[in-house]
């Protein structure tokens, strides 16, 4: 591959991508970066397309068509990042120190974007005809509601048979991750004067009963639900809001929870468990009620499903072999700790999905974000080899 693209070209592309802001506080969000990537592809005479998902917020695609026009191998990377927040250096002036590329998005995931784009450019420069097509999908909004990949799934304009998601895995082959469901439970009581609490129904007490059951009954139950590589299902009460003043019995208390679920669970099961303990909680205090709702304004409209692919799938076996050859590190399938757009593809389009990208997830969203430049270069080689393996 080295004769078609070199390491410094890949790293300089990663630097340019970092220097173009593409977060929610940036005016135009992903507009500039999508257009920049379009120009990069066009300069190489690679077919490209912008698809506006929201006004001025386009997905950017690059295509290498194959002779088998229905089949596509997708390289999927989100082009948005989180904002700079309190980073220890200028987040959008990338620099290299001790073999690390620093900057917002270096690890999540502009290093991977540079590697994906570069692998496709190398294949194009080589000029070999492909049987299966390759598509780069630079998607918007992954850090918020995942609208970019959701559009791909809804329109079915491209239905990839294989896909790599470039989230940071230290170049390990991640074959599973949990689903993520945000649920709100609103407890309703009866307000009255704080001096006569026996005349009211305290909604904070209702929430308290619920939380006690969550901790003592639901948590142990979830610990016993496990899935290979993923461990247990989990639940986290993250927000609790209730009451106005100390001298009023609160009639309203809202609890928001994050439930990480396993491929072996169903979404129905999740809600039934919550409903069961909520029913039990309000039975302890007469006059209370509750309402459970999905927080769909804050997460993907399609469910944030879990993802898994069999370790025996030929796509997994070949990826492990290729990654091992290139990194010289023994490779075993791993789980990805977060959530990824890959779940949308595997659950809705039946795509075989692997999560594999340069860098360590602990650096993502951190104030000291960086990515190993060797790993960005090795990711380029892995992506290139995957195209050669599955598309020629
Ligand atoms: Zn990410």
TrEMBL record:
<keyword id="KW-0378">Hydrolase</keyword>
<comment type="similarity">
    <text>Belongs to the peptidase M20A family.</text>
</comment>
<keyword id="KW-0862">Zinc</keyword>
<dbReference type="InterPro" id="IPR036264">
    <property type="entry name" value="Bact_exopeptidase_dim_dom"/>
</dbReference>
<keyword id="KW-0170">Cobalt</keyword>
<dbReference type="GO" id="GO:0016787">
    <property type="term" value="F:hydrolase activity"/>
</dbReference>
<feature type="domain" description="Peptidase M20 dimerisation">
    <location>
        <begin position="175"/>
        <end position="281"/>
    </location>
</feature>
<dbReference type="InterPro" id="IPR002933">
    <property type="entry name" value="Peptidase_M20"/>
</dbReference>
<dbReference type="GO" id="GO:0046872">
    <property type="term" value="F:metal ion binding"/>
</dbReference>
<dbReference type="Pfam" id="PF01546">
    <property type="entry name" value="Peptidase_M20"/>
</dbReference>
<dbReference type="InterPro" id="IPR010182">
    <property type="entry name" value="ArgE/DapE"/>
</dbReference>
<protein>
    <submittedName>
        <fullName>Acetylornithine deacetylase/succinyl-diaminopimelate desuccinylase</fullName>
    </submittedName>
</protein>
<keyword id="KW-0479">Metal-binding</keyword>
<dbReference type="InterPro" id="IPR011650">
    <property type="entry name" value="Peptidase_M20_dimer"/>
</dbReference>
<dbReference type="InterPro" id="IPR050072">
    <property type="entry name" value="Peptidase_M20A"/>
</dbReference>
<dbReference type="Pfam" id="PF07687">
    <property type="entry name" value="M20_dimer"/>
</dbReference>
